[in-house]
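Assess this one:

_____
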Amino acid sequence: MRKIQEVLRLYFGHSRSKREIARIIGASPTTVSDYLARAKLAGLSYPLPPELDEPSLERLLFPPSEPSSVQRPAPDWLRVHNELRGKGVTLELLWQEYKAGQEDGFQYSAFCDHYRRWRQRLSLSMRQTHTPGEKLFIDYAGQTVAVTDGATGEIKQAQIFVAVLGASNYTYIEATWSQQLPDWIASHVRALNFFGGCTELWVPDNLRSGVTRASRYEPDLNPTYQDLASHYGVAVLPARVRRPKDNDLRRIL
């Protein structure tokens, strides 16, 4: 039997993270997220009503599958797939938009299942493998993080610098106030100190602070960034414009 009550108790009653709960109940973080999403869509609040035991809770959140003869209006899966690339866009948000226009449409779990099956039919890409010590992928996360000044209460947006080793996915993350050249260079230095060494290649995105002209074979680097690379004896291979597979970091972000 699913441990839905335990998930809700640990999450709402004890403020445990989804990963912690997954370890405690012996499930995956995805399963924990699914339980919480279903509880939210069912309008449940914590603590649960005394009469709602585990079997009743499971029947509420996991109703029986509909007969196969029932035909539900399907959304435009290509549009769903493309909109998921937007910042902050989730399957749950797209399902709510779809459901608002199709009252007889799929429920959330069926919506997700149909989308995943549709996505599996897309053309596959060859998996890239990386030699240890060869590449360091560098970029800023797309979303900023709000930081509150404890003295003044002022809220400022911090940029998130991310550097990931290609072979191991070992990751360095830090927040800076900008993506300007001084912060860009200083973040590199701190990342290398964190890793305790330097790779043969840096693969940054085409941030203006580092790359003034993107090219796979003859990129123009900012002079200061070029000096930094020369100091560490590293080659810089910027990702090409509109070629997201050049920078494996983009799939992490």
